[in-house]
Amino acid sequence: MTTPFGGSGQPAPGLPNLPTPPTGWPVGSYATYEEAQRAVDHLADSDFPVRDVTIVGVDLMLVERIVGRLTWGRVLLSGAASGAWFGLFVGLLLSLFSTGGGGIVRIVVALLGGIVFGLAFAAAQYWGTRGRRDFTSSSQMVAGRYDVLCQPRNAEKARELLAKLAMGTAAGA
To answer: How far apart are CA 159 and CA 163, in angstroms?
Structure first.
């Protein structure tokens, strides 16, 4: 079995099947995920056995960034656009798998039908909120800090390598 993202549906060998708390000793703590990722990349570049390493997000937060105000015009335009794409898709399928003429007519009818249904569904959904959510947003899970953990058998070596990375960064600043 494969996932839509190209990996197998099974965890890597040696990893637990069920969600479990991470194990290992802390070898570094970073303010951003990018810094933690750079630390693990440094370990990998140093031929460190990175299978012993875990990045753990601590103090998780759900951050919802407001993208814009939601108006009837935007709702209807968005509904019409998504309906048009779906209608075009259905129309193309109908014209490909139908015998006889009228392929363009099928596409246009499906396109118009998609627009009408897209408008109707978007309007009904927006009307159903009754103004309780008149904005669009994007949500993201972030952590207050990112700890890098390592299994005890290699934790000291990881600390040494990450200390060298930190000294190199401080010297280069």
So the answer is: 6
Q: How far is CA 128 from CA 82, 106, 118, 134, in A?
A: 19, 32, 15, 12
Q: Which two tokens stand for residue 6?
A: 């190209």
Q: Indicate whether this model's pTM tops 0.70.
A: no
For 17-67, the pLDDT digits (tens) are 788 899 999 999 999 999 999 999 999 999 999 999 999 999 999 999 999
Yes or no: say if 39 and 158 are a contact pair by the CB < 8 Å rule: no
Residue in the block written with tokens 């499906």: 110
Tell me how far apart the alpha carbons of residues 90 and 110 are, in angstroms, rounded to a whole number.
6
Which residues contact residue 77 at a Cβ distance below 8 angstroms, ignoring those fewer than 6 apart? none
Q: Are 1 and 8 in contact (CB under 8 A)?
A: yes
Nearest to 97 by CA among 85, 107, 84, 108: 107
In angstroms, the CA 116 to CA 126 distance is: 15
What single string gives the DSSP state of each residue in 117-135?
HHHHHHHHHHHHHTTS--E
